[in-house]
Amino acid sequence: MDHVSTFFKSLWKLVESKHTEGVYNTICLAVLLALPTVVLILSIVICCHCCCSRKKKTGSADIKTEKKKKKKNTEEDLWISANPKAMMLEKIPSFSA
Prior knowledge:
Keywords: Membrane, Transmembrane, Transmembrane helix. The protein is mainly alpha-helical. It has a domain at about 1-55. Helix content is about 80%, strand content about 0%. It has 3 helices and no strands. Helix 1 crosses helix 2.
């Protein structure tokens, strides 16, 4: 417990000394001390968002895939032929007169 209080006292002394040196040092110190907090909060928000959205999508995704499979079975298969060059040659008019 004594080490923790010593750490925070030395941190507070550092903050006070940088503040007396100037405004620029105070702003830089505030940004450096706030970055870990911002990263922690941002990671918690992203984690919660991913977990909540995953639960909602799994139930609806199964229903959507079943509907797509049913539609594919009833629709005709409309594939492009394997010889597109032969089809293109048939459509080109001949210039022989």
